[in-house]
Write the structure tokens for this entry.
Amino acid sequence: MLSYVIRRILATIPVMLIVALFVFSLLYLAPGDPAAVIAGDQASVADIARIRASLGLDRPFLVRFGSWLWHVLHGDLGTSIFTNLPVTHMIAQSIQPTFSLMVLTLILSVVVGVPLGVIAAARQGSWIDRSVMLMAVFGFSTPVFVIGYLLAYLFGLELNWLPVQGFTPITQGFWPFLRSLILPSVALGMIYIALIARITRATMLEVLSQDYVRTARAKGVGERSILLLHALKNAAVPVVTVIGLGVGLLIGGAVVTETVFAIPGLGRLTTDAILRRDYPVIQGVVLLFSLTYVLVNLIVDLLYTVFDPRIRY
Amino acid sequence: MDRRSFLKSAATSAALASGGLMAGGLTMPTIARAADNKVLRFVPQANLANLDPIWTTLYVVRNASLLFYDTLYGVNSQLQPQPQMCAGHQLSSDGLTWTFKLRDGLKFHDGSPVASKDCVASIKRWMARDGMGQMIHAQLNEISAVDDKTFRIALKKPFPKMLYALGKVGTPVCFIMPEHVAMTDPFKPISDYTGSGPFKFNKAAWVPGASAVFEKFTDYVPRPEKASWLAGGKRVNFDRVEWKIIPDAATAGAALQSGEVDWWESPINDLIPTLKANKGVAVGISDPLGNIGDCRFNHLYPPFNDVRVRRAVLMAANQDHYMEAVSGDDHSLWSDLDSYFTPGTPFSTNYGGKILSERNIAAARKLITEAGQMGAKVVMLVGTDLPIIKAQSDVTNDLLTKLGFKVDYVATDWATVGSRRASKAAPDKGGWNVFHTWHAGVDCVNPAADIAIYANGPGAWFGWPSSPPLQAKIEEWFNATDDTAQKEAMKQINKGSADFGTFLPTGFFKFYQAWRTNIHGVVQAPFPSVWDVTKS
Amino acid sequence: MSTTYEAAPELPEVLAEPRKRGRIATFIRRHPTIVAGGGLLTIMILVALLAPWLGTVDPTAIKPWMRTRPPSAEHWFGTDMLGRDIYSRTIYGARVSLIVGFAVALLSSVAGTALGLVSGFVRWLDTPIMRVMDGLMAIPGILLAIALMALTQGSVTNVVAAITVTQIPQVARLIRGVVLSLREQPYVEAAIASGTRTPMIIWRHILPNTLAALSVQATYICAAAMITEAILSFIGAGTPPTIPSWGNIMAEGRSLWQVKPFIVFFPAAFLSVTVLAVNLLGDGLRDALDPRMAKRL
């Protein structure tokens, strides 16, 4: 077991290296020039060249990559070209909104998605089942920003129940914090709820047809206990898998959701940085996102052994 | 260690790690609560990503800098430079030596007095980056401190526009920083934002992309005169000015309507009717000097290296289309422009600019055929992330297609346009034929900061127009010492620019600003001016 | 085992019905999702193909003096900020979404299959290829696509390429999995032992067995690609604005969604319906082609 964990952790290193190299070369090849953005309209061509040089952007690729990697290994993600602030500081500033959004979305998706899937499975073929599955397909098919604007229009502007924009840090009270995140997490959660509901339903159906469930039924165990005790526990494995796979989806969705709801999180930080070619920030955030993805999937793999003792390494 | 307890500890450390992340997030500055009418919550035009107003020339950086830096001179609403940090100056009779004396009571935010050596270092850093500053530099003999309160600029030949240069509001503004900060390479950003202006910048509370906080500097001594733009007494009635960055216009509008913010610098025009309908919101023109749209030609390559083709575009363009696309149906916000200078200013002129109102596509096509450029390919760079630029580009795309060109619409972001427009390569080899931008009207009141009209070839702005006779007229303006001579020079420059087709001005347009009705004293200025503004 | 259990109760009906009703009716009854999804998708394809004859005008013609007009008899879906006809733009926009969806599905299937086959058959290439695929998967797809778009100038081809890159790893992993399990099958082992050349083994034994899973995966990729195109255009990193795509129309109307909601509404509705159609088709195909997979998802 322990050796498996170590092997898995070691295996993430080449993956992260590939991510780093890939992102770095992408940005190296990208045509935009942060120096031109900084210099503004009044600057001459020579001014831009001097700013480039002072930013170290005129050095060869390998030199820049090597020096960046060296610093990253020492926990230094560099300094933002524009703000002149450490990238780690900027990430720390914008991590709370994104992290809160993702956690709340995840909770919401599980709390709504799993029961929907269980009900659909228990009433397989009924109108409840059909409508849950139809809703799930709708959830897949509507872009997150469309759902976001619809929700903001309905609950923010028409009904005036919830704020349409912004993020309130948890330090200013839990309720304002929660209020600011409800609409974004519902918008972002829609596709996730759909995914989890479908997976839960499918696994439940499979488990319900297993011998031991039939044995339990034959022994006179109540239908409700069968659903909750036997089936749901076994359905946990695929649900956890989906959570792992979905983290990538969630991160991508967060980028768009933060734009729609003006949340100053990592997604906005990244898109702003891409538009301005703030290389150190882009590299730092993408590295962080990738690391999150890799770690979450590592944890998911380890959780398998908790939920399903048959799986051994 | 068995599997389950290992997992438990793994889960615990994961929880710790995420707790650490949370704690990182929680270090966000908690905002001290001041009396609400002493706090101004302001939504600026753009994200404040940097605060070095010399290193970067973005207007949003200038606007923030005006809160916490001060200037030696400052233009008033008549664009006349008035002493601000300076008590006054003396000019030697040969016009070569300027001696400036600082007024009393000037202090930096760290408590140290402002000395002449700080001014000398700041002017030097500014000169390296500013167009007028470089002209001064070119004829500079010496700039030095005479004593703690006095410094001198000695020139090789007279530069009558000295006070205007030191007090202008167009970027980069000649802000005064402490000497040790101003010694920074002008091509590298500073990170110490100590100024001597009426507010202090709270660096710890700065979250790029979200917010910035400026706190009242209690030791600031305003001048006794009434405030007017950069001139006069900068009296402030707020303990804090909080900038809230809201990039989505619809979202910012909703925040103003619900009273979550007090003042929105740049509402989009289509939202104005909604804002006007709200009883708690007032709406007014922000900058009376407005903006001039610019369809920029590359003079180095066909088809726009031929004056006939450039003139053809000028005579075919319909500025109404550009302005409707940029500013919408509200005609009080924009006007056509038969000039290269800001309309309504003392020296503005439309002499020789008739071609801009001809709107004759047939004649234009004839001229293009005559030049042998019918069907030529035009590479147009479009920064689609800036709506004003995209709207102009879409109209030009339509216009050039009607004129018989094949337009290659290069959709990209402004960062890419910014670097690619600097390329002198052939359009099909990484260069370009056309791009769009706009110039703040305050920069176009005269040729001083209006780099867009320069026609000195390699030294000119992007597109590198080269016309020695036109450039000679611009020199004449710089050397002019009286109003009549300045006025005549500008008439000739305007005619020369239209005849030469330096670029196509696409019209003159203004923006609104919007504020809550409990904010009083908002004025029209080229920057959001908080002097004498109060909140009830 | 569970498969037989599932299929058993349906068996008599299945056997009894076909003779009585027409084959089409049977197909509709047995695969309602395929019919619904395929039908909707066919309508959308027809709309895209017949765009010029559906009462549209030039979707790029600007009329700045007619901007942001609400839907009317002249402009069925209203006009946008440049006075362009939103109905025409939406109808022509179907072409972009469908081209992007189909092209990405096709290209990523082909490239992913190739990589998956190589990975499954050439042992020394397996680890490097799969590590690169892991690396690509670890970068959030949208961010990767945005970064790729920053690298190039906006065009439909580049959008297709950028989205394809984000989808290849999934296909490669799927195919590699299938290859590895098929290699263990006795008939494949027999073919290898008898000296059959690898390309022949792939052609005869491997590819036919991947088709079911691949075609289902391809429909989902198609749906994902259409949504991604819209998102990319929405944040300004997608199809160039000269080309009317649903994402572009929505991006341009985005700041006005409070006051002129119709600009965003129509393309959003078309996009949702089209993606829904593709997803339904995918679900139906999965149920029909691979009952085991149906259980899993």
